[in-house]
């Protein structure tokens, strides 16, 4: 991913939600909900990601872009993104997402993060993008006693806590409908057909585009095609999203020049380490970054174990043995703040 120019705009507040939801970046729920086409701030970014995925390729993001994303994720308040997905510390966020988006698993990485996180230039644009059209105050008065879900008038599945929107799943984008089961809103294709039983392993749809499984009598799906992938069934009967590249054995990995080749759900994935200034072959003193390796830093450059710190409005930290400095005012924040939850930008 090439570096993009970003404008300086206003931002606000810190993430203060302490509750964790059982949703991960690559969860079935999120992928199903977000997977029917681009709706990000930069409409072309999604299609670029899918185009690469259709060729079985992962292009790691520019580190500057991940820093911008993590400045927003760790510092903006009232984000409709499950807080369990986001480290509270800026440097931990940068490390987590850089590594995840440089691995073979990045082929089906969170679309919300790609569409909204990497493309937003302010708290307001990130918040609006992640809402997927839902009203910012849609959860007002809901979730006072705990996490609850409901379906809004446009068929979105919303998760609420203490009057705030924690997650939005646009069911209609995936051709599904929203229902509430056990107090939680979910997206479904309808009742489970007789051939798909509760507890059965997920299976591929007849079209080969979706993973299907039965949850509490309702048919849930994951749209592999939204990621430029297809549904594939392994030898043990497990269905997963995979590339169209040749089959491979689980755990297989090798280098093709500066490209790292690995195996995900039974098929090859190619990670273009060279595009991100990384290597494939391990070298003495190098640091692993996903499926790639960062070149060894100069002797005595910085200690990766040192704690990040604030220097005025700058976050100073060490990544892969190389000193980094992020200027919080680049996105309209006033300062760098440090506390028990780590270092981040603030107002």
Describe the structure.
The structure is a single chain. The chain is of the alpha+beta class. It has a domain at 138-188. 17% of the residues lie in helices and 28% in strands. It has helices at residues 28-34, 43-54, 63-75, 90-100, 111-117, 123-131, and strands at residues 57-58, 148-151, 156-161, 164-170, 177-181, 184-188, 203-204, 210-215, 218-223, 230-233, 239-242, 253-256, 259-264, 267-272, 287-289, 292-294, 309-311, 314-319, 322-327, 335-339, 342-346. It has a 4-stranded mixed sheet with strand order 1-14-13-12. Strand 10 and strand 11 (239-242) form a beta hairpin. Helix 5 runs antiparallel to helix 6. It is flat.
Kindly list the characteristics that best describe this protein.
347 residues; alpha+beta; four-stranded mixed beta sheet; three-stranded antiparallel beta sheet; 17% helix; flat
């Amino acid at each position: 991913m090439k570096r993009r120019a970003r404008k300086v705009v206003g931002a606000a507040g810190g993430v203060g939600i302490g509750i964790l939801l059982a949703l991960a970046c690559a969860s079935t729920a999120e992928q199903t909900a977000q997977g029917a086409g681009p709706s990000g701030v930069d409409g072309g970014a999604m299609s670029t990601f899918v185009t690469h995925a259709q060729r079985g390729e992962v292009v790691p993001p520019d580190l500057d872009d991940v820093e911008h994303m993590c400045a927003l994720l760790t510092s903006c308040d009232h984000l409709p993104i499950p807080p369990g997905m986001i480290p509270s510390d800026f440097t931990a966020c940068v490390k987590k997402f850089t590594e995840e988006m440089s691995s073979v698993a990045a082929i089906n990485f969170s679309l919300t993060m790609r569409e909204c996180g990497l493309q937003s230039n302010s708290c307001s644009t990130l918040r609006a993008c992640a809402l997927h059209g839902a009203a910012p105050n849609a959860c007002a008065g809901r979730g006072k006693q705990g996490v609850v879900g409901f379906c809004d008038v446009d068929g979105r599945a919303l998760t609420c806590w203490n009057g705030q929107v924690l997650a939005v799943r646009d069911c209609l984008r995936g051709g599904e409908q929203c229902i509430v089961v056990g107090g939680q809103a979910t997206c479904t294709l309808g009742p489970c057909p007789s051939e798909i039983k509760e507890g059965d392993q997920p299976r591929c749809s007849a079209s080969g585009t979706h993973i299907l499984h039965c949850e509490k009598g309702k048919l849930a799906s994951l749209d592999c095609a939204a990621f430029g992938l297809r549904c594939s069934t392994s030898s043990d009967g497990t269905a997963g999203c995979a590339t169209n590249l040749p089959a491979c054995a689980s755990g297989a990995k090798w280098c093709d020049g500066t490209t790292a080749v690995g195996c995900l759900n039974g098929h090859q994935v190619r990670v273009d380490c060279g595009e991100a200034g990384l290597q494939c072959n391990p070298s003495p003193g190098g640091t692993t970054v996903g499926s790639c390796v960062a070149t060894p830093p100069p002797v005595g450059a910085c200690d990766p174990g040192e704690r990040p710190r604030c220097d005025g409005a700058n976050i100073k930290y060490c990544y892969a043995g190389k000193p980094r400095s992020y200027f919080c005012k680049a996105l309209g924040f006033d300062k760098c703040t440090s506390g028990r939850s780590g270092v981040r930008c603030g107002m």
